[in-house]
Amino acid sequence: MKTLPTLKAAGAIACVTFALNATAQTSASAPPASSETMGQHIDDGTITTKVKADLLGAKNVKSTHIHVKTRKGVVWLTGTVPSADDKAAAAEVTQNVDGVQSVKNRLKVVAE
Question: Which InterPro entries does UniProt cross-reference here (predicted)?
C-alpha cells in the first residue's frame, strides 16, 4: 500500500523537476527576450512552467516532445506530437492556463 503514495510523490517530483529544469526552447518564430521587462520575464517564466506541468499532467496529450516558449503572455508550442488530436489537446490545455493571452501552435504531427 505504501507503493502508491511513493509513486505519486515520485511522479509529482518528476513533473516539477522537468518543468523547472527544461529550458525554454528557442524557435525562429518567438520574439527575442531582450524586449521584455524583468516583471514580464518572471511572469512569462511562471506561465511556461505552468503550461509544461499541465501538459505533463494531461492524460490526453503525449507531451514529451513539446517545447514551450512564452513572451508577453503569448505561448509558442513547438516540437512534435503523434497525432492531430494531441496537437489540438495541447493547444486547449495551454489556453486554459492562467495568464496565457494566446497560443501559437507550431506543433508538427509525426507518426511514432
Answer: BON_dom, Lipoprotein_DolP, Transpt-assoc_nodulatn_dom_bac
Distances in whole angstroms, Cα of residue 48 to Cα of each of 8, 11, 41, 83: 23, 19, 10, 23
Domain ranges, residue 76: 61-109
- pLDDT above 70 covers a percentage of the chain that reads 62
DSSP, collapsed to helix, strand or coil, labels residue 106 as: coil
pTM over 0.70: no
* Distance between CA atoms of residues 36 and 56, nearest Å: 27
DSSP state of 46: H
CB count, 10 Å around CB of 58? 17
Specify the CATH number for the domain of residue 69.
3.30.1340.30
End-to-end CA distance of the chain: 35
